[in-house]
Design goal:
heterodimer; A: 263 residues; Enolase-like, domain 1; four-stranded antiparallel β-sheet; 11 helices; 32% helix; B: 788 residues; alpha+beta; Aldehyde Oxidoreductase, domain 3; Aldehyde Oxidoreductase, domain 4; seven-stranded mixed β-sheet
Chain lengths: 263, 788
């Protein structure tokens, strides 16, 4: 790790100011950033922790019935607080990493990093969530822009994520054996006006919607509806843990399982 | 009734008190006054000519004490290899130099180019980043067969090729073996890979060098399984320090699995640099560094053929193996694919003719050496896989095919140069079948099928050679060391004992089980006995702990030394009781005169030895301390039968182990609880190899599996609750304890049963084209096998 200055503001406004400095970097739960820094793969002048900002923590429901989660809320808190209101989301949050990860890692940190194998991007895209920042509101469909790439500008902070609550939902994760990140993770959400299917871990451009399955499931929300479909493998990740063909196959299997398990 | 103390008792591990309460003292806990820290600048390319190393900017950085490069070691020896293999044509293996820091070339990602000694670890690392290295990159040699092709780039320019040796065993039998294949009723052929593994002990390697100017003495504190071997190799071959001026200490060591046997360049560096800098120098490996510098294990590519006669008797075995040595020869690397592998190719079976060919190959990868089992897992895996395949081809029961070919009479001389002293393979197989409810398998399979899962059962046997080794024999085979063991038993005046052993405990529980043996021999409470190990300054010369040898060889030395103690104590007791020495009996710590009620306690005798007022000084010396060296006259041959049941998810290829049973013959057992723990750990590593672990390089020699994000270690939820049993035992006939060794069995015996089970599951489900899947059987590999 290289030396750096550390700042822990208590308001969003102070955090934005701190991040305006040259080579400043926001710190959420540090589950990706700190290991990267320890390996000297990241170097910044100032690390701005978002963990002291009370208004960015916690879970509530707004007048529109959306579940609103503060950007600095840990996975463990989300798992606990949404267990009744949004079990599909709670189930996803409760299986991210291990207890240590879940008690440090934050939803804002995960979405800002947009790791192609992370779980939360599937929930946000699959739910059609709104990413709220200090500056604006961004629809999930506009937010994810490829591996580790998002619509966020430099210094922009995810202050809240708003999830519409579907009638039924489920997340199925097939883990990469070593890291236990998603080799393929599929989030299925059934809304009154249609079904959304979001896939993480598999796509070479990061999280994506499987629109063909969405159409099929919107008219017939059953496992059988996706059995006749196939996922093209040319846009899939291929690495030592699985070929593109294997990932494409798993997308279908996990989608079917998520539909069967959706509640 | 289980015993509650002594030999056979499950005494709780006394060392765990300090380990579990954070009181262990590991090498990284050692911090010496004035200590500096070294950071190694390592090559990030696999192969290249080292044109220039510019340290000028780095040398001026804050806190830098001194920067070393290969040029500083030109007058210093390289790290030696401890075993010379002779090839098929009677020629010695090709043996490259292995400098402490790279000279002229870098040969793998991780090869040390320069070393910065600085006031703090941070400063050393900062300065290392400021060193400017100019490397002309060369093509990396990664694939073994490509490495042997004509015109392949040479890893070592001064060698004739990348072939270390081409070994044939037994070369004289080759013609007869070929003839047996020509006349065979059936031949089964299998090509397979024994996957490369990273050892990953919980404690990474650490070394601290110290030099005392006043006495000209060097001390190395290091994470080693064999401090005396390090002292010998480093002192005699690298740094030229006589052993009386060199002390090597291996304190508590957090696991080794073979990877801490070897003499590494970092050990020699800190010892050398401490003298050069006139201050202690410490190196602590990071986990990332461990992946690219700790010797890897396995990495064989093999073709095995099994010839059977018309009655399904094994007629001959023929194998061809490519064994990866990596970029340099690690300490015992050449012996692993040869003498620890070829000699076990008979397995538990009476196959009259065997020929083993091994081509050892240099590549631009981390050196490969012994890893838990070392050669024997590779032999067991190919043999037990080809037998399963043969049974399927012949339409016979794989267990019955094994039984039919078991060695049943002992001693049994194999055609591959070893003689099994004792065993009962039918006994362990029968025990195994009692444990696994084979008759209930069909019902369990049907139940799995209801849940959409494919169930399979895999069974295999194994044998290993432990208790390494008769020195005269291994000397003929190329070992450059003896493989005896030693012990000094010191009895104190008040009766307590200190046993100083050349063996080293790094997780095996010697401090408990060794004490059980000595206490049992005299009839004392185990707590009267303390075991001392790990410091060349206060233990007799020993060859260390590996190859499941410590109880069989080190324990035998301890028995011999204790016998000397008892013999002398009896002389003293006879004097004290004015009786004839021949009438003295020792029981429960009391000496008595046979046929009388006369007795003296152990403590009276030991006190007399050190306060010799009433003592036969004209016959024996005062004091009670004896040393014994023990050189075994054969290997020991633990053996057993293992069974694994798996479920395969046909949609994803994921394998789940439903049950695992191990029936082992370890001979006599000193501490059943510790033995079970050793088997559990071995099974975890074997199952890890079978399902999860794999070192993977890309074609440029970059290590892809360089962290736990990509190298998959087994975790608790990957493993089943094991059924283990060691009651079907045939005591070793040639060591005084009748013990065989248990440390490696689980890792040797388990991979084939896992793979046999998965292939069985797929075959039963109609995937009849799947006759083998290479380890690790990851979901993606199993799924891919089902598709073709």
């Amino acid at each position: 790790m290289y030396n750096f200055e550390f700042s822990k503001p208590s308001t969003i406004a102070d955090a934005v100011t701190a991040l305006g400095q040259e080579e400043a970097q926001a710190l959420g739960g540090g589950q990706t950033l700190l290991p990267t820094m320890k390996q000297r793969l990241a170097q910044m002048s100032t690390l701005v922790s978002l963990n002291g900002i009370a208004e960015m923590k916690g879970v509530c429901t707004n007048d529109a019935g959306e579940i609103c989660i503060g950007g600095a809320t840990t996975h463990a808190t989300v798992a606990k607080e949404t267990a009744d209101s949004y079990p599909g989301l709670a189930g996803l949050a409760s299986r991210i990493g291990d207890p240590a990860v879940r008690n440090r890692g934050t939803i804002g940190g995960s979405l800002a990093n947009n790791d192609p194998s992370a779980c939360y991007p599937a929930a946000a895209l699959g739910s059609g969530a709104t990413i709220v920042t200090n500056a604006r509101e961004i629809a999930a469909d506009e937010y994810f822009q490829g591996m580790f790439a998002t619509a966020l500008d430099d210094g922009e902070i995810i202050t809240e994520v708003r999830f519409p609550v579907p009638e039924a939902s489920n997340y199925q994760k097939f883990v990469q054996p070593a890291s236990r990140f998603a080799l393929v993770g599929v989030f299925v959400a059934k809304f009154a006006d249609g079904v959304r299917v979001a896939v993480t871990g598999a796509g070479s451009d990061g999280v994506f919607r499987w629109t063909e399955a969405e159409e099929a499931l919107s008219s017939d929300f059953s496992k059988g509806a996706v059995e006749g479909l196939s996922v093209p493998s040319q846009d899939m990740i291929s690495d030592l843990h699985g070929s593109a063909e294997y990932r494409a196959h798993l997308v279908k299997v996990m989608t079917g399982r998520a539909v069967a398990a959706a509640s | 009734m289980p015993k509650d103390s002594g030999i056979g008792a499950s005494s709780k591990r006394r060392e765990d008190v300090r380990f579990l309460t954070g009181q262990g003292r590991y090498t990284d806990d050692i911090n010496l006054h004035g200590q500096a820290y070294v950071h190694f600048l390592r090559s990030d390319v696999a192969h290249g000519v080292l044109k220039n190393v510019d340290t000028s900017e780095a040398a001026a950085m804050p806190g830098v004490v001194r920067i070393f490069t290969g040029a500083d070691f030109e007058g210093v020896g390289g790290v030696p290899c401890g075993w010379q293999v002779t090839d098929r044509h009677g020629q010695p293996m090709q043996e490259p130099a292995h400098p402490i820091l790279a000279q002229g070339k870098v040969r793998y990602v991780g090869d040390a180019i320069a070393a910065v000694v600085a006031e703090t670890p941070q400063q050393a690392r900062d300065a290392a980043e400021a060193i400017v290295v100019d490397i002309d990159e060369l093509p990396a040699v990664i694939d073994m067969k490509a490495a042997l092709a004509d015109g392949a780039t040479k890893v070592h320019d001064d060698l004739t090729s990348n072939l270390c040796y081409d070994w044939g065993f037994v070369e004289e039998n080759k013609g007869a073996v070929d003839e047996a294949f020509a006349n065979a009723a059936h031949v089964t052929t299998l090509e397979l890979v024994n996957n490369r593994l990273s050892p990953n002990p919980m404690e990474p390697r650490v070394a601290v060098g110290d030099y005392a100017t006043g006495t000209d003495e060097s001390t190395l504190y290091t994470t080693s399984q064999n401090p005396h071997v390090i002292r010998l190799l480093m002192g005699a071959f690298v740094l030229g320090i006589p052993e009386h001026k060199l002390r090597v200490v291996a304190p508590d060591v957090g696991g080794g699995f073979g990877s801490k046997i070897f003499h590494y360049v970092e050990e020699a560096f800190v010892t050398f640099a401490a003298k050069q800098c006139r201050r202690p120098v410490k190196w602590t490996s990071s986990r990332s560094e461990a992946f690219i510098t700790d010797a890897h294990g396995r990495d064989h590519v093999t073709k095995i053929e099994l010839a059977l006669d018309a009655d399904n008797n094994f007629a001959a075995i023929r194998t061809e193996t490519y064994a990866n040595m990596g970029a340099y020869l690690s300490t015992f690397a050449p012996s692993v694919p040869t003498w620890l592998h070829g000699t076990l190719m008979a397995g538990n079976y009476k196959t009259p003719l065997i020929y083993v060919n091994v081509k050892a190959v240099f590549t631009n990868t981390v050196p490969v050496d012994a890893y838990r089992g070392a050669g024997r897992p590779e032999a067991t895996f190919q043999l037990e896989r080809v037998i399963d395949k043969a049974a399927r081809e012949l339409g016979v029961d794989p267990i019955e095919l094994r039984r039919q070919n078991f060695v049943k009479e002992f001693p049994y001389a194999t055609p591959v140069a070893v003689e099994y002293d004792t065993g009962d393979y039918e006994g362990t197989m029968t025990k195994l079948l009692d444990m696994i409810d084979r008759d209930g398998f069909e019902a369990r399979r049907a139940k799995s099928a209801e849940n959409g899962k494919l169930r399979g059962l895999g069974v295999n046997c194994y044998i290993e050679a432990c208790g390494i080794a008769p020195s005269a024999l291994v000397g003929q085979l190329g070992a450059r060391a003896g493989l005896y063991e030693s012990a000094t038993v010191r009895v104190n005046a008040t009766g307590g004992l200190v046993v100083m052993t050349g063996s080293h405990s790094h997780g095996q529980g010697h401090e408990t089980s060794f004490a059980q043996v000595v206490a049992d021999m005299i009839g004392l409470d185990e707590n009267m006995v303390e075991i001392v190990h790990g410091d060349t300054a206060n233990t007799p010369m020993g060859m260390g702990t590996y190859g499941s040898r410590s109880l069989a060889v080190g324990g035998s030395a301890m028995v011999r030394a204790t016998e000397k103690i008892i013999a002398k104590a009896k002389k003293i007791a006879a004097h004290l009781m004015e009786a004839s020495e021949g009438d003295i009996e020792l029981k429960d710590g009391q000496f008595s005169v046979a046929g009388t009620d006369k007795s003296v306690a152990w403590g009276d005798v030991t006190l007399a030895a050190y306060v010799p007022h009433n003592y036969p000084l004209d016959e024996i010396e005062p004091g009670l301390e004896e040393t014994a060296f023990y050189d075994p006259n054969n290997f020991t041959y633990p053996a057993g039968a293992y069974a694994c049941e798996v479920e395969v998810d046909p949609d994803t290829g994921k394998v789940t182990i439903c049950s695992f049973a191990a029936a082992d013959d370890f001979g006599n057992v000193v501490n059943p609880m510790i033995v079970e723990g050793q088997v559990h750990g071995g099974l975890a590593q074997g199952i890890g190899q079978a399902l999860l672990e794999n070192v993977s390089y890309d074609e440029n020699g970059q290590l892809l599996s360089a962290s736990y994000m990509d190298y998959c270690m087994p975790r608790a939820d990957d493993l089943p609750f094991y059924k283990v049993d060691h009651s079907s035992a045939t005591p070793c006939t040639h060591n005084p304890l009748g013990v065989k060794g248990c440390g490696e069995a689980g890792a040797i015996g388990s991979p084939p049963s896992v793979v046999n089970a998965v292939v069985d599951a797929l075959q039963r489900a109609g995937h009849t084209h799947v006759t083998h899947i290479d380890m690790p059987l990851t979901p993606s590999r199993v799924w891919a096998a089902m598709q073709n």
